[in-house]
Write a structure and sequence with these properties.
This protein is mostly helical. The chain contains 13 helices and no strands. The two termini are about 30 Å apart.
Amino acid sequence: MESIIAVTIGVLVGAIVLAFSGYSPLEAYKALLDGALGSKYGIALTLSSATPIMLTGLTFAISARTGIFNIGAEGTVYFGAIAAIAFTAAFANPLMGLLGGILFGAAWSLPAAFLKVYRGVHEVISTIMLNWIAFFGALYIVLGPLANPNDPNKTISVPESARLGLILKETDLSWGFVIAVIAALLSYYLLWHTVLGYGMRASGYNERASKYGGINPKLAIIWSFVIGGIMSGLAGAVEVMGRPPSYAISQGMANIHGYGFDGIGVSLVGRNHPLGIILSGIFFGMLKAGATSMQIEAGVPLEMVKVVQGIIVVAVAVPGLWDLVKNLFRRGRQ
């Protein structure tokens, strides 16, 4: 009910902003829905846009359930995408590309995990710094070892034999969406139906009490970073392996930039729950897919589209953010 109220408030505030800016809210929202859900291509674009941010949302949610504010998914996406291109170039196999994203994602999560557990460095500070290290390190690789000698606008492409197949032909929707949904279901099972997941959630809820229960909070934190790294590394991999037409990383990493930060909003809207993230990821995908239609059909400029999208996202994310802040505040007082 809270989420429905939040969506309603966000839509109404966005409508007021549109009206005061001289645009028709009804035409704008109709164009958004038409672009996102009004055709087979629109639905496919919505689901394909949801795929990477569902996975980065899981990164944030898993850590949040362990009492950690992990915002390092952005950097992990870069290395997941790079690993997928490198592994598929070497082995020409989609499973090896996915494995590369998983391995590099897990590996890049370890520095922040060890800094948190063994040196007490706050994860917000370390992950912000590591995001910048990842950005410039990945940019060097994209412009150097993986550069495409025939096209300066992108890296070498994933071989055709290693690409993820399309669920619907002549669309952007690949089997990466199914992989993201399976990852969310597995995350739910891990957190609520395994001993490891119980320890992670217990540690996030009350670290001191979990110690008395025989749980190792340090190990729980490390696992939350590693599993989260796997998810965001996988996000980078499925994006370059399953998103036509280039199947590569574009110049300046524009086609993989921002997914890690978008995942934070997806997780908050989904109340940091893996099953909720499936729905919130699709909701964010609708906003992304409908943006172009708002510009073309309703004449709303891109800047105003971004403003309206931001208002809706902030309104919808407030309940989840409030829950997270209360949990972190309670954990800090223990």
